[in-house]
Amino acid sequence: MRQMKRSLLAFAILGLISMAPLAAETVEGILIDNKSVGKMKTYEAAKSHMRSAALAANAKKGGYSIIKQDGSAVKLDDRGNMLAVATLEASDKQKDLRVAAEGDVSGGVMATKELRLL
Predict the structure, then answer these.
(1) For the chain, what is the domain count?
(2) For residue range 73-115, what is the model confidence (pLDDT) as tens digits?
(3) Cα 86 to Cα 80: distance, rounded to the nearest angstrom
């Protein structure tokens, strides 16, 4: 009986732990439209991408990604895309669009909670 109570308690604790929200991840890098990701293969190249190109109508329609310093890209979800457009429109910065985004990353896509220029 005592062993059964311990087992039930252990399962209850594991259940609570698995329900706990995951810590959000912060991703820093260069904000770039998805239409240009293939052209900008490195972090350094992405730094030269112009804000005006990122705000073009076809760029807005295609969404945005963050190019990290290691050259990998994290795609933003719909909320992240809306935050990216708002951030770009509010900025005077013309290139080197460094940002920090916070959210949960799964399968290379961020469920974005926050995005800000650095």
Answers:
(1) 1
(2) 999 999 999 999 999 999 999 999 999 999 999 999 999 999 9
(3) 10
Domain annotation covers residue 17: no
Q: How many residues does the chain have?
A: 118
Confidence of residue 9 (pLDDT cuts 50, 70, 90): very low
Q: Report yes or no on whether pTM surpasses 0.90.
A: no
CA gap 101, 31 in Å, rounded: 10
Is the separation of the CB atoms in 54 and 97 below 8 Å? yes
Task: Band the pLDDT of 19: cuts 50, 70, 90.
Answer: very low
35 touches 59 (CB < 8 A): yes
Question: Is residue 18 in a domain?
Answer: no
Closest CA to 83 of 60, 51, 109, 52: 60
Per-residue tokens: 19: 């329900």
User: How far separated are the first and last CA of the chain, in Å rounded?
Assistant: 59
